[in-house]
Amino acid sequence: MSVRELVVLGTASQVPTRHRNHNGYLLRWDGEGFLFDPGEGTQRQMLRAGVAAHDLNRICVTHFHGDHSLGLAGVIQRINLDKVPHPVTAHYPRSGQRFFDRLRYATAYRETVGITEAPVDTDGPLVTTASYTLEARRLSHPVESYGYRLTEPDGRRMLPERLAAHGIKGPDVGRIQREGSLGGVSLEDVSEARRGQRFAFVMDTRLCDGVHALADGCDMLVIESTFLDDDMELAIEHGHLTAGQAARVARDAGVRHLVLTHFSQRYSEPDEFERQARAAGFEGELTVAHDLLRVPVPKRR
């Protein structure tokens, strides 16, 4: 059975706290695992969350600030220690190649797994499979940063009452799906369009075109809200978003489930992030993330 869920490994921004580890997020997408922004301590958080190195297929780094990337060294070495049996691909800004190289070979270890390096240097698709297209968009931060988005291909939803009306059942249901027609009945006659699911991951950034493009029409948007609205000037100065800004992005983009994360250590209580997001007009499902939380991707419409 396919599983699509977000496993939150860490929610702190620059400085971890007693209750928040540095960043780390695993997206389970059917049989694949996407590890986003493994900050320091990610390997231990994976253990606590029941996430194995074997679960990882792609590592997506938004930028090379330490709270988003210092965990790479441990994660890559664990992938090799556990002899993960499938290829693992790493996406990261090409401008940070020297940082990736240092982290990949931070200490001596035996390489047993081929890590495919796939650096990002432009907006657009990175890879397309039968299950998704992974794309990147440039963000606005003091260092080069990219957000990521998964889009499932649109499909068809079979309608039992129409199938029954045309006398189509059993193996013939699969046949009409494969061939597009059966005995003069078209696939469109017994099904309806089903929009593919959309997931976006937006970390350190000011408001910019990339943020809106990534969020557009998403079923789940994971987005930084480092500051509360009262600290808007700090957010702009340091290249971040506030809770209200993130919520307005989600509202305008038609996001179904908004996940706020990446909180400054100056805030100890999460309730105000939710209050400000609601005050900004977001009415969909809202999660203020905490470490080791599991959040299911909303079911298809």
Summarize the structure in words:
This protein has helices at 42-49, 66-69, 72-81, 97-104, 160-165, 171-179, 209-215, 232-238, 243-253, 271-279; strands spanning 4-10, 24-29, 32-36, 58-60, 88-91, 115-117, 124-128, 133-138, 146-151, 155-158, 181-182, 185-186, 191-194, 198-202, 220-224, 257-261, 285-288, 294-296. It is α/β, with parallel strands linked by helices and 301 residues long. The strands form 4 sheets. Strands 6-5-4-3-2-1-18 form a 7-stranded mixed beta sheet. Helix 3 packs across helix 4 and helix 9 (243-253) crosses helix 10. The longest helix is centred in the last third of the chain and has 11 residues, at 243-253. It is globular, with a radius of gyration of 21 Å. The mean pLDDT is 96.
The description of the largest β-sheet is: 7 strands, mixed
SS-derived structural category: alpha/beta
Q: How many angstroms does the end-to-end distance come to?
A: 19 Å
Fraction of helical residues: 25-40%
Q: Name the shape in a single word.
A: globular
Helical segment count: 10
Strand content: 25-35%
Instruction: Please mark out the parts with pLDDT under 50 across 5 or more consecutive residues, or reply none.
Output: none
Would you report the number of β strands?
18
Summed over residues and divided by their number, the pLDDT gives a mean of 96
Q: Provide the gyration radius in Å.
A: 21 Å
**Biggest β-sheet: strands ordered side by side in the sheet:** 6-5-4-3-2-1-18
Helix-strand string: EEEHEHHEHEEEEEHHEEEEHEHHEHEE
